[in-house]
Amino acid sequence: MSTELLITSALLGAGLAMDAFSVSVANGLADRGMRTARMLAIAGTFAGFQFAMPMIGWVVVKKAAEAFEWFSPLIPWIALVLLLIIGGGLLKDGIEEMRAGRSEEPAADEAGGAEKLSFAALMMQGVATSIDALSVGFTTAAYNRMQALASSAIIGVVTLVICIAGLKIGRKLGELLSGRASILGGLILIGIGLEIWIKGVFF
């Protein structure tokens, strides 16, 4: 593996992981009792999507570039819808919790933390934060199969590290914010969706 490929892929990974990092912070805010195994599972999911999307893009460019053109304009809209659904749900839960006057203890969060982010919601987050990485396949079209795999693997590893950091930061902030954490997490997700949509549609 060349040094240029390593550096380029690491920089791509850092850039692509920013949305996943922000979502990880939101997840940590919503589940401040999250355990290490769950953190690794969530970060690993994001890393897996960030690995897969560039490879899918590379295959599409190699095999069916023309068929991909119709899908490209839909990417920001898909990310917006997915993150609005997830963020809106968190926001609604946080508002209802505040209205009911409930204050959850950290021990209760730890016991029920696994329910705060369902498998379906995690998959939606993974798609929403990685779908723009499909376009990375265009930039790696000149790579052979092994180079493309290596590049995608580096992107995945960088994403894993960044998302673990995001989850830890969010969990610590969640301890400080208590019941307001779900509201802040929901607003973060909605903001990410809007940012992806604005960049994709207007820039």
Descriptors:
8 helices; 81% helix; mainly alpha; 203 residues
Describe the structure.
The chain has 203 residues and is an all-alpha fold. The chain has one domain (3-202). It contains 8 helices and no strands. It has helices at 3-30, 36-68, 75-100, 106-112, 119-130, 136-139, 145-177, 181-202. Helix 2 (36-68) packs across helix 5. It starts with a helix and ends with a helix.
Can I get a quick summary?
It contains 8 helices and no strands.
| SSE sequence, one letter per element | HHHHHHHH
Poorly predicted regions: 103-115
Helix/strand class: mainly alpha
| Shape category | globular
Average predicted local confidence, pLDDT: 80
Q: How many discrete domains?
A: 1
The tally of strands reads 0
Q: Indicate the percent of residues in helices.
A: over 70%
Beta-strand percentage range: under 5%
Characterize the biggest β-sheet: none
**Total helical elements:** 8
Distance between the termini: 34 Å
In oligomeric terms, what are we looking at? Answer: single chain
Taking Cα atoms only, what radius of gyration do you get, to the nearest Å? 18 Å
